[in-house]
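Structure first, sequence second, as always.
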C-alpha cells in the first residue's frame, strides 16, 4: 500500500505541481549551504579566539559560573548545527497564512543574528589586548543585540516551523548565559 504523494504547489498534473521528491536535490544543497554558513562563522570565530584563549583570557577574572574552556567547542558545534537546520526548515516550509511571518523576513533576522554572532567573537577576544576593558563593553553591547536578534528570529521562525523555533531556543539560552559571562568580564577586567 503506497501513500499518494502530495503536491507542494498546485494540484497534481498541472503546471507548477511538484512532488516533495522532485526538489530533494535542492533541499540537500540548501541544507549544506546553511550548515556551511554556520561552519564558516564557527571557523572565523575559532580563528579570532585561537591566540587569545590561552593568552589574556587564560589569566582573566572569569565569572564563578564560567564552564571550563573545553565545554565551549562541543556546545557551539551543537548550537551551530541546530541553527542551520532551523533556518533550513524555515527556508523549505510552505506555511502560509495571515499570522505566518514572511519567510524572507524570518531568514533576514537569522542572517542578522549570524552576523552579530560573527562580530562578537573578534571584538571580545581579539580587541581586548589593544583596547582593554572597553573592548569587553563593546562586546557586551553586541551580545545583547545578538540576544535580541535571536529572540526575534525565534518569534519569526516559530509560526513558520515550530521545530525551527524550538531548535533556536537552546541557542538563545546560551547567548544569554554568554552575555552574563561577558558582563562579568567587563566589570572585573
Amino acid at each position: 500500500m503506497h501513500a499518494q504523494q502530495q503536491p507542494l504547489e498546485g494540484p497534481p498534473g498541472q503546471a507548477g505541481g511538484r512532488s516533495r521528491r522532485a526538489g530533494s536535490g535542492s533541499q540537500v544543497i540548501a541544507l549544506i549551504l546553511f550548515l556551511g554558513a554556520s561552519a564558516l562563522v564557527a571557523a572565523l570565530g575559532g580563528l579570532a579566539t585561537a591566540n587569545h584563549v590561552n593568552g589574556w583570557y587564560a589569566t582573566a577574572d572569569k565569572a564563578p559560573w564560567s564552564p571550563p574552556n573545553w565545554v565551549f567547542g562541543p556546545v557551539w558545534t551543537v548550537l551551530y548545527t541546530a541553527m542551520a537546520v532551523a533556518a533550513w526548515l524555515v527556508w523549505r516550509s510552505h506555511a502560509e497564512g495571515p499570522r505566518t511571518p514572511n519567510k524572507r523576513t524570518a531568514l533576514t533576522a537569522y542572517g542578522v543574528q549570524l552576523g552579530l554572532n560573527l562580530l562578537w567573537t573578534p571584538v571580545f577576544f581579539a580587541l581586548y589586548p589593544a583596547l582593554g576593558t572597553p573592548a569587553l563593553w563593546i562586546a557586551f553591547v553586541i551580545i545583547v543585540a545578538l540576544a535580541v536578534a535571536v529572540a526575534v528570529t525565534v518569534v519569526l521562525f516559530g509560526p513558520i516551523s515550530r521545530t525551527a523555533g524550538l531548535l533556536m531556543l537552546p541557542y538563545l539560552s546560551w547567548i544569554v548565559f554568554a552575555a552574563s559571562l561577558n558582563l562579568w568580564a567587563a566589570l572585573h577586567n
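Margin note: The first helix runs from residue 24 to 53.
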